[in-house]
Specification:
Blueprint (H helix, E strand, L loop, with lengths): L6 H10 L24 E2 L5 E2 L3 E10 L2 E6 L5 E5 L3 E5 L23 E6 L3 H4 L1 E10 L2 E12 L2 E10 L14 E3 L5 E4 L19 E5 L21 E4 L4 E6 L6 E5 L6 E4 L37 E3 L5 E7 L10 E6 L4 E8 L2 E8 L7 E6 L5 E5 L4 E8 L3
Parallel strand pairs: 1-18, 2-22
Antiparallel strand pairs: 3-25, 4-5, 5-6, 7-8, 8-9, 9-10, 11-12, 12-13, 13-14, 15-16, 16-17, 17-18, 19-20, 20-21, 21-22, 23-24, 24-25
The structure holds calcium ion.
Length: about 400
Amino acid sequence: MHRRLPPVPLAALLFCACGGTAVPSASDDTPRGTPAPEQAQRSPTPASTRGVVTAETFATGLVNPWAIEFLPDGRALVTERPGRLRLVSRTGQLSAPLSGVPAVFAQGQGGLLDVALDPQFAQNQLLYLSFAESGEGGAGTAVARARFTEGGLQDVRVIYRQQPKLNGGGHYGSRLVFARDGRLFVTQGDRMNWKERAQDLAMGQGKIMRIATDGSVPADNPFAGRNDARAEIWSYGHRNVQAAALHPETGQLWTVEHGARGGDELNHPERGKNYGWPVITYGVDYSGATIGEGTAKAGMEQPVYYWDPVIAPSGMAFYTATAIPGWQNSVLIGSLSPGALVRLELRDGRVVREERYLGELGERIRDVTVGPDGFVYVVTDSGNGRVLRVRPMVG
Ligand SMILES: [Ca+2]
């Protein structure tokens, strides 16, 4: 029979182990019988680690690439925020922009954003693009479905529009993630100047949406059938979700959202739940002013983990390959600022370790995926953006 180690030494042991940065659990030092405090785990802000992986240029000459997605044949699609979609060959050559991409509102953070393949892409060649779309009232996040052909996109149709459209260029979200049931999650933001709308179920801002691939709303959505709520809503109270992926074992949606100063959050948004923004947050306004009511409130979910200082998260992938030793089952997240590839180890739904890599590049990492070779591919956000292949350092 195993003896239980006393809680505090166990936390200290975890924190010191292995030369990496294990994360102390908020609940480890809570005496038994005492309810756990409403306090999320905080990132220990590890320094970027050198000597484990190296990044080599795979493709170059991209303008503000936002997303990368591999096709079954080993080529990749890359979006450029000004409104272009390109193919990257298996050897890193860029194609001319593909025709048929919808017109995008390419201002501020807006433009052509994510790309996702249909789960049946090999049979139907369908793909989905998220983008900022102009229209009455300003602009909003939108999703188009199209059929990929070598000659460009065909049968392009907008299947989702964030309502209402609003002025401003900030906080569009907008990652696309397929659930196991074939429903499409669309992450969004609060459009920056409209944060209170994240709590208003009649508004499309600050929500994660769940739609069918023809744009219809699944009847089992949490607010379907209500007069006072948008039926597409899956979860709400989000600030700006630019990183999302499906957990390969549980099938849950996991997300990372930009907080204000000191408030980036890891969540696994569940059906109908309220993630608190802007009522509760660990961040403060950029002016230093407090936001909302504090860090916890009944009826609002705590993040799994938060970053203070922030990482400015964008792009996320679960690593299930084996080509990079020790990374299997990690969560990989792009950091725009300070600029890094963030790796989390999860255990039982909690973060037990955080490491960071590629900080020495000084690049804004905008998206992360895993290639058919098992290596990690990231895109860098700049006017001379690149696709980088991340491999174990040899020698
Ligand atoms: Ca939150």
